[in-house]
Each structure stands twice: as C-alpha cells, then as structure tokens.
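A further point concerns the way the authors explain their paired sequence and structure data. Since the whole study asks how a given chain folds, the encoding of that fold should be made plain. A single example would do more here than another paragraph of explanation. An entry of this sort, consisting of the sequence and the corresponding backbone structure tokens, reads as follows:

_____
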Amino acid sequence: MSTTELWVNSDGLEVRFGSEKAAAHKGGRMISADGQLHEVEVTITGTAVPSTDAPVDKYVAIPPNSYIEEAIFVVDTTFTSSGSATLDLGTMNVDGDGTFSTLDDDGIDNALAVAALTADARVVCNGAQINTSPTNSTDASLPMVISYGYNTAAFTAGKGKLIIRYRLIA
C-alpha cells in the first residue's frame, strides 16, 4: 500500500489510509426519526462567499426526486460588508463528470441583504425552489448541490447555517 490511498464509497464518502487527512466538509445530511423528512445543512462563512455562483460544499447534495419543504438561514455571527452586499442561495446541477452547472442561482433565496444578516437572525427563505421539486437539468437521475454567491459587494465577516428540509417523492 502506498503512503496514502483514497477511494470514494458508493455513498460519496472518501475513505483514506496513510498520512493524508480528509478535508473537513461544510455540512451534512440528517433524516428524521420517522424517515420521511430529510435535512441538509451547510455552514456559510461570509468571507468565503464568491462573486459568482459556486457550490457551498460539493459533497452535500439534495437527491433527485426531492420536494423542498422549507429552507432557513440561521445567522451565528453578524455578516458585514464594505458596501451593500446581498447573498443569493440556490442550487447547481451535479453534472456527473466532476463539474457543476447553475440550475437556479437564487432558487433558495434571492438577495438577502447584509442588514438582515445579524447575529441570531432566522431568515425563512422564499426562493422559487421552495415548495417545489427541482430537477437536475443536466441529468434528472443526479443530485443537486447548494450554491451561493454575493451581489454588489463582498462580505467581510459573518457565519451562518443554511438548513434545507425536503421529502423524497416517487
């Protein structure tokens, strides 16, 4: 065996042996006790939000055949900006070849203003993909990942969690 060996299990988790450590992810997935309601959660750090649409974490996905019931953004640390920054939350297609393409860059929420992103704030998201079943437009059998991007100005601080609750449908 080499000093570092890596493979990806069928569940998408990396398995590593050797001296190399896996990178920490920005989120994860949970299932309710009754198995019906699923939840993905990602941590968003203001200084990491890009100017163009990008995945928050390419390993935290919403599976195909999901109905998004709600999304809530919970602010832990106040977001700041040197201008009038806004935050778009959306989804990207997993293209199946290691790349991602925009599905709806503000489908979870559009232009959350920096003034609304204060510590302990709970923002109920109201984008076009809430209360719908979005479908990967590249390949409907593949999942979607959560995306983010800023408008107007970059964020200089802030941290929060985006929680998306969904049900699997037939």
Observations:
- The chain has one domain: 24-168.
- Residues 58 and 98 are 9 Å apart (CA to CA).
- The mean pLDDT is 89.
- The radius of gyration is 17 Å.
